[in-house]
Amino acid sequence: MSDTSQAPTPEAAGSTPLTLVFDEPRGRKKPPRHLADLTAPERKTLLEEQGLPGFRAKQLSTHYFSRLVDDPAEMTDLPAGQRDALVGALLPSLMTPLRTLEADKGTTRKTLWKLFDGALVESVLMRYPGRVTMCVSSQAGCGMACPFCATGQGGLQRNMSTAEIVEQVVAGARSLARDEVPGGPGRVSNVVFMGMGEPLANYKAVIGAVRRLTEPAPDGLGMSARGITVSTVGLVPRIRQLTEEGIPVTLALSLHAPDDELRNELVPINTRYSVVETVEAAWDYARVTKRRVSIEYAMMRGINDQAWRADLLGDVLNSYGDWGWVHVNLIPLNPTPGSKWTASDPADEREFVFRLEAKGIPTTVRDTRGSDIDGACGQLAAVE
Question: Where is the Radical SAM core domain (predicted)?
Answer without folding.
Answer: 128-372
